[in-house]
Write a structure and sequence with these properties.
The complex is a heterodimer of chains A (about 290) and B (about 375).
Chain A lengths: L10 E4 L4 H13 L3 E5 L7 E2 L2 E4 L2 H8 L3 E4 L6 H10 L4 E4 L6 H14 L2 E3 L5 E4 L3 E4 L8 E8 L2 H13 L4 E6 L10 H9 L6 E7 L4 H8 L10 E6 L23 H10 L11 H9 L1
Helix pairs in contact in A: 3-4, 7-8
Chain B lengths: L1 E2 L1 H8 L10 E3 L2 H11 L3 E5 L12 E4 L2 H11 L3 E2 L2 E2 L3 E5 L3 E12 L4 E7 L6 H7 L4 E6 L7 H10 L4 H20 L2 E12 L4 E3 L3 E4 L8 H5 L8 H8 L2 E4 L4 E5 L2 H13 L6 E4 L6 H12 L6 E8 L4 H15 L5 E7 L2 H11 L3 E3 L2 H14 L1
Parallel strand pairs in B: 15-17, 17-18, 18-19
Antiparallel strand pairs in B: 1-13, 2-7, 3-4, 3-7, 5-6, 8-9, 8-11, 9-10, 11-12, 11-13, 14-16
Helix pairs in contact in B: 2-3, 5-6, 8-10, 9-13, 10-11, 11-12
The chains are: A alpha/beta (about 290), B alpha+beta (about 375).
């Protein structure tokens, strides 16, 4: 099938009536995503892009049976938007918004974990199941359908790698941009497990970067995967970044001796995940995995 | 954004009475007259944004006017790990009975804030945690609940705090956590938190950082530090992109943090040294590219510039159009290599080839090698 999102998934868009929301929602619909409603507080009852708009997610879910929501609201309203989505019973969330204050992100993270909601993001490009549906802002033109799963902390590196994979004659099943912030929902661990359960995914490319310990924790888990444990290739961005400075992403920072590229590369290589220095070397390794 | 000790103490004094505020000055005479007024001994402390001030000689006791003068003069202007001391804090010395440690800080592995307390304060807490971990209380804080007072009391006792001070310390911790949340702090560290001979608990030192992404709702905190607006980082922030100054000579511009990091790595792989990190974000509009180019070029060390753009939602031909216009108007002083790929990259590359004399390619590693070669030639 695909991971977390397919062409049947009923999707609501929080912040659909805004400029960004309008632009990306129409792209999502054009691609075939089953968008069923928009949510903008105060605009309930209106119609936008041919879809009903609701004041809150609960009303939207009652009326449409939606199970997923993608959030485009400005950073200062994001915590409230996530609360609204979680209370409505939606089980899958994508948060595109960047620049959310840390304390709000901590609350958002704790909330979705407590309620068992899968959240991709914040500060991410979203999720793209090729040939089926898109929640977020990934450009559909670069994708070709195939059997490679992709999970990445960086938006543009996701596109970069998708492009390289397409040019190498391979294709993508689902691409998940998990985001580069200090607190995120789905990490490498959860995403790799989901790929392991997806029959359409035969191999996975994971794009990490400096900061935090999500790559190391994923490395500990990888040997326990049943299908793809020896079909994962990794990349770590920011090998040359100086310590103590955040490189664009709030989470891309080497703090003291934590979050160094060496520790991540070593952890992944120790469980048999090759980590080439160049992104351009990844497609050949993937070819080897699925041939 | 990090605060200097005296700035953090000023913020704390909104909610705490016993903060050793003292006087902040860059003038030796003011220091002496303040010291004479409050009475000796006084402590004189360098105000810089770096740890290890004490070991570097930036914190000293003065027992009389002469010492106050000589110590103030010595510390002002001192260089502590690359930070020049421009201000000192002068405060009446307190009679210390015990020194404790308290901090509330973001713990990435737990995805929460964490409280740390120890009765062994005034020293490096990492060392205490290493030598006697039982003396360090470490408690992740659930952001969806209030602090559990009974649990806190129990843990403070277990960590060796005398029962008669538990109530006072609990009060301080609760107020501190309230302040951390209300003011969007990512770090509040009080080391030492002091018990005086008069049985008072006093905040003697403080490290504080506020979350940069919360500026929109913490403007008064950010105004405390608004003096220096000249750095490239700050100019970039105003123009809406993120910039980090580095030591090399190959300027780097790209769209997307991950791509820019990978570009730095590619330049290094090709034998070059990046001069900066600059992420112009999505879109890559002409005006933004123009501002970015000026900023990078303005660094005198830069000898070549590598622009790395992925056309996603924003099409490659539109990006190329913008870059061509900017470059033709401003005629840059150093050679520029452009690598463009993604949506409609071929059309974009055609525009750049036909309308500019920039070096153009669609392969990242190739572009990096070219940028390094052009640096060597210029």
């Amino acid at each position: 099938m695909s991971v977390w999102l397919n062409d049947k998934t009923k999707v609501i868009v929080q912040g659909m009536t805004g400029r960004e929301g309008t632009f990306h929602t129409s792209n999502m619909i054009k691609y075939g995503t089953n968008v069923v409603a928009g949510v903008t507080p105060g605009k309930g009852g209106e119609s936008h892009l041919g879809l009903p708009v609701f004041d809150n997610c609960s009303n939207a879910v009652k009326d449409t049976g939606a199970t997923a929501s993608v959030i485009f609201v400005p950073a200062r309203f994001c915590l409230a938007a996530v609360k609204d989505a979680v209370e409505s019973g939606v089980k899958f969330l994508v948060v595109i918004t960047e620049g959310i204050p840390l304390h709000d992100e901590i609350k958002i993270g704790a909330l979705v974990r407590r309620e068992g909601v899968i959240m991709v993001g914040p500060n991410c490009p979203g999720i793209f199941s090729v040939g089926q549906a898109s929640m977020g802002i990934m450009p559909s033109s670069i994708f070709k359908k195939g059997n490679i799963g992709l999970v990445s902390r960086s938006g543009t590196l996701t596109y970069e790698l998708v492009d390289l994979i397409s040019r190498a004659g391979l294709g993508i099943s689902t691409a998940v941009g998990i985001g580069g912030d200090r607190v995120i929902g789905a990490r490498f661990i959860e995403t790799l497990k989901a790929f392991d359960h997806d029959e359409d995914t035969l191999a996975v490319a994971m794009v990490g970067e400096i900061g935090g310990s999500d790559e190391e924790e994923a490395a500990e888990m990888i040997p326990s995967l049943s299908r793809i444990s020896n079909k994962i290739v990794g990349f770590i961005g920011g090998r040359t970044a100086p310590p103590g400075k955040a490189m664009g992403h709030a989470g891309a920072i080497v703090e003291g001796n934590k979050g160094t590229p060496q520790s991540k590369v070593e952890a992944l290589e120790s469980v048999g995940v090759p980590v080439p220095e160049r992104l351009s070397e990844m497609p050949d390794i993937l070819k080897g995995f699925i041939s | 954004m990090d605060f200097k000790e005296y700035q953090g103490k000023k913020v704390l004094s909104e909610r705490f009475e016993n903060v050793a505020l003292g006087l902040v000055t860059s003038n030796v005479h003011d220091a002496i007259s303040y010291a004479s007024e409050v009475g000796f001994p006084v402590v004189i402390k360098a105000q810089v944004l770096i740890g290890g001030r004490g070991k570097a000689g930036g914190v000293k006791l003065a027992f009389n006017k002469e010492e106050a003068e000589s110590i103030s003069s010595a510390i002002l202007g001192m260089d502590i790990k690359g930070h020049k001391v421009e201000e000192i804090l002068v405060a009446k010395a307190v009679d210390i009975k015990e020194e404790w440690y308290m901090s509330i800080t973001f713990d990435r592995a737990n995805r929460s804030m964490t409280l740390i307390f120890s009765v062994e304060g005034g020293v490096d807490i990492e060392q205490v945690a290493h030598d006697s971990p039982e003396k360090v209380l470490k408690m992740p804080i659930n952001p969806l609940k209030a602090l559990e007072i009974s649990e806190l009391e129990k843990k403070l006792l277990e960590s060796g705090l005398n029962k008669s001070y538990v109530d006072e310390v609990v009060k301080i911790i609760i107020s501190s956590y309230g302040m951390v949340v209300d003011k969007d702090l990512t770090l509040l560290e009080v080391n030492p938190l002091v018990l005086t001979e008069d049985e008072e608990v006093v905040i003697l030192d403080c490290k504080m950082s506020v979350d940069d992404t919360a500026e929109f709702r913490q403007s008064s905190l950010f105004e405390m530090n608004s003096g220096d607006d000249s750095s490239r980082e700050k100019i970039a922030k105003k123009q809406g992109f993120s910039y980090v100054h580095l030591e090399g000579d190959v300027g780097i511009i790209g769209n997307g943090a991950g791509l820019v990091m990978a570009t730095m790595d590619a330049v290094k792989n090709a034998g070059g040294e990046p001069a900066n990190f600059l992420d112009i974000g999505g879109g890559a509009k002409a005006e933004v590219v123009n501002n970015a180019l000026k900023l990078v070029e303005g660094n005198p060390k830069v000898k070549s510039i590598f622009i790395n753009v992925f056309g996603g939602i924003t099409r490659g031909d539109e990006v190329a159009r913008g870059i061509a216009d900017v470059v033709n108007e401003s005629s840059p002083r150093v050679p520029i290599v452009i690598r463009l790929t993604g949506t409609r990259a071929e059309e974009g590359l055609e525009i750049l080839k036909n309308e500019t004399d920039l070096s153009v390619t669609d392969v990242m590693d190739e572009a990096a090698e070219l940028a390094v070669r052009l640096r060597d030639e210029s």
